[in-house]
Design goal:
This protein has 430 residues and is an alpha+beta fold. It has helices at residues 3-28, 38-50, 62-65, 134-153, 175-182, 230-248, 299-315, 345-362, 377-383, 407-425, and strands at 54-59, 82-88, 98-103, 123-125, 128-130, 156-158, 162-167, 190-192, 200-204, 206-215, 268-274, 284-293, 326-328, 333-334, 337-338, 368-371, 388-390, 395-396, 404-406, 427-429. The strands form five sheets. A six-stranded mixed β-sheet has the order 1-2-7-3-8-17, sandwiched between helices. Strands 10, 11, 12, 13 and 14 form a five-stranded antiparallel β-sheet that branches. Strands 4-5-19-18 form a four-stranded antiparallel β-sheet.
Length: 430
């Protein structure tokens, strides 16, 4: 690819950025929490079809993926879990194929009164766009799409097949990405534009979700000492899990990529509910836990340690000894993934190609950092033997109030992706 072509592509990204910003605002105006992604996916499918891509839109069928490695127990009904893939088919096919992946689902917005402005009315202020999902990760989806647009506006198309994926379920299972693999979408590399602060994730943690169900002995509060509170019974169990978190973070057992991180594995009790009446000792309690694990950790072994931890805590409590908690796994059963351990020439080549594009756009080197979160990269890297690069714009307050994405960063990422596609896939005249 000549410098003249590179300059043309970068110029077209600039020309299209107002349109990209408007697209992001429209996309982010669609609430797309778990089970409510349909309108956003319909919008995405229409945008892909309008550009001439071959569009595949389908309902994720649990039966098709439940037997596959990487499957996580589902949460809720899948009747409306819709994936969308737009395919570019090369006429010459002399380059390397590519998956451009992003997730359309967003996390719940929380109390609306704690947002400065409505979360699904995206606004721009001083170079930032605000709204639920603008950073995590609809700006990444926009960057993928408009990187392709810029290449086409330059008079070229990728010289290999490119699959633009807008998937559901990333925030709780990853089953949307898994369904894409099951449907046959594979390529020589995958690029996932999560909000990585213009850095490349060198590795990512695995995640386990589980619920702990407790039963108490309800009585009128005037005789509270004759009953047992299911809510109070949760307290020693949560304390025991926090002790397990400390043990798992011990430096002598850490994955080498996370050796210098101050606290890589985070336990989070993200939900808790219990009781039926203020004047009744609670008869039940359920709390939901997210626990991280290092790449290479056997999830079955980790789950066994969690269960042993809770069993030990149960044995120390007079009520729990005879009223054991029930543990239910649903949601993430996600393994960690390390690019460094995916040691093959294609991986090194993909990283080098991204490094070259990033340096040309930013003028500086591409930083590689471990992530203490998880992404859909594991599906491509672990189960499809495909290098999976996670690289996206700078965002703040993701999963929080007043989530925002830096538009200048989004522009640079779009430029980098466009050059990456052009170099990785090669170019053919339209």
């Amino acid at each position: 690819m000549t410098n003249k072509i590179k300059t043309k592509i970068l110029h077209e990204v600039d020309n299209l950025f107002n349109a990209e910003t408007e697209f992001l605002q429209k996309l982010a105006s669609h609430p797309s929490t778990r089970g409510n992604e349909q309108s956003a996916q319909k919008f995405m499918a229409a945008e892909l079809a309008g550009r001439g891509y071959e569009v595949d839109s389908w309902k994720v069928n649990v039966e098709d993926i439940a037997h596959l490695p990487g499957f996580s127990p589902v949460i809720g009904n899948y009747e409306d879990a819709i994936n969308v893939v737009g395919s570019h088919r090369s006429k010459t096919n002399h380059g390397r194929s590519l998956i451009l992946n992003g997730h359309i689902d967003v996390v719940p917005e929380g109390p609306l009164e704690m947002w400065d402005t409505p979360p699904y009315e995206p606004r721009i202020d001083n170079g930032w766009m605000y709204g639920r999902g603008v950073g995590d990760m609809k700006a990444g989806l926009a960057a993928n799409l408009f990187a392709l647009d810029a290449i086409h506006a330059s008079g070229y198309a990728p010289a290999s097949d490119v699959f633009f994926q807008s998937v559901v379920e990333e925030e709780c299972t990853g089953n949307g990405a898994l369904a894409c693999l099951q449907r046959g979408y594979k390529a020589d590399a995958a690029l996932i534009t999560e909000p990585s602060e213009e850095k490349l994730f060198s590795s990512q943690l695995g995640v386990i979700w589980f619920q702990v169900h407790l039963k108490g002995i309800p009585v009128h509060v005037e005789r509270a000492d004759s009953g047992s509170s299911a809510i109070k019974a949760a307290i020693p169990l949560i304390a025991a899990l926090e002790e397990l978190e400390t043990r798992w973070n011990a430096k002598e057992i850490r994955h080498p990529e996370f050796l210098n991180h101050h606290h890589p594995l985070n336990l989070n009790v993200g939900k808790i509910a219990g009781g039926d009446w203020v004047s009744s000792v609670p008869a039940w309690c359920v709390f939901d836990v997210r626990m991280a694990v290092f790449p290479g950790t056997d999830l079955k072994v980790a789950c066994a340690e969690i269960e042993d931890c809770l069993t030990a805590a149960t044995s120390k409590n007079s009520f729990l000894r005879n009223n054991s908690p029930e543990i239910i796994y649903h949601g993430f059963q996600a393994e960690g993934y390390s690019l460094a351990e995916h040691n093959k020439p294609e991986t090194k080549m993909a990283i080098q190609t991204l490094e070259t594009a990033h340096k040309l756009v930013t003028g500086g080197p591409l930083s590689q950092v471990p992530s203490t979160a998880t992404t859909d990269a594991r599906f491509f890297g672990l189960y499809a033997d495909t290098p999976a690069l996670v690289y996206g714009p700078y965002s703040e307050s993701i999963h929080g109030f007043n989530e925002r994405v830096d538009l200048e960063s989004t522009l640079r990422v779009t430029q980098t992706i466009a050059l990456f596609i052009a170099d990785w896939c090669g170019l053919e005249p339209i």
